[in-house]
Amino acid sequence: MLDIRQTPEYADYLSNIGWIVERKNQVSYFIRKFPIIGSVLKIQRPKTIDNNEIKALCKKHRVFQVILEPNSTISLSSEYKPSKSPYLPSKTLQLNLDVPIKQIEKNIKKDARLAIKKNRQTEIISYESAELNEFRSTWTKSVGMKRYIPPLAHLFTLKKSFGKKSLFVTDKNKNCGAIFLRTKDTCYYWQAFTNNEGRKKQTQYKVVWEGILWAKRNKCKLFDFEGIYDERFPNKSWKGFTHFKKSFSGKEVEYPGCYTKTSFTHALFECLL
User: CATH classification of 91-254, choosing from 3.40.50.920, 2.40.37.10, 3.40.50.800, 3.40.630.30?
Assistant: First the structure.
């Protein structure tokens, strides 16, 4: 399965919010330039690692840090150091959609099934590009200053890049919402929010269920919950939504984590030439 961060849609999104995108041998490399000191090179979930290409890009863009997040366990040179804080979720939960919908529903834990049933009549609203200001306003009112909310321009760009492969939704009462993105095979529970009323009424279960149904209609084979609590990189704030996500069942998938290679000396030397 091709990870969403290696799709043309994601490359288009990043290139339109300020990143340089280079694609070589079916791998996307993302470069962010900084004044004077050089650039950061980010490689996320590639199927292969090409060290020669990385070296060439480092020279071309005066890279002072490489951020590598492999798709699977690989052997790296001693220049790469494991990071204590991965940029991408190092562990996730994937739900098999390649079965009848009745089977998916049956596998959901009892409390989650009851929450979905309780909210059966809850209307779900989807948002197109012209309505994203309202979507973001709802998001802001739900979480306030407690969490990062992407700028409106980034949401517009995300919607434009993914088009029909994106779904932005809230419940009618605007207590919760979510963004779902999909590739050919996998739907991602990309970002989500809920307020106290939404948690009380358990509306988010219905929102996720709508995302699953949307993915199923579009013939996705997997539904990726895009991150759960990982004991290797403990973050207690992830435990609450991990419990929520696991109520839908699914298979846990681990990634190696994040590796970085830093060379400030090289970047500063290049600046002085």
Answer: 3.40.630.30
Take residue 88 and report the two structure tokens written for it.
């991408």
Convert the pLDDT of each residue in 131-165 to its tens digit: 999 999 999 999 988 789 999 999 999 999 999 99
In terms of pTM, does the model score above 0.90? yes
- Can you read off the two tokens belonging to residue 1? 């399965």
Distance CA 166, CA 175 (A): 20
Provide the CATH number for the domain formed by 4-86+257-272 in this structure: 3.40.630.30
CA–CA distances in Å: residue 85 to residues 124, 256, 260: 35, 12, 11
What residues does each domain of the chain span?
Answer: 4-86+257-272, 91-254
pLDDT in tens, 200-214: 999 999 999 999 999
Strand 186-194 to strand 222-224: parallel, antiparallel, or no bridges (unpaired)? parallel
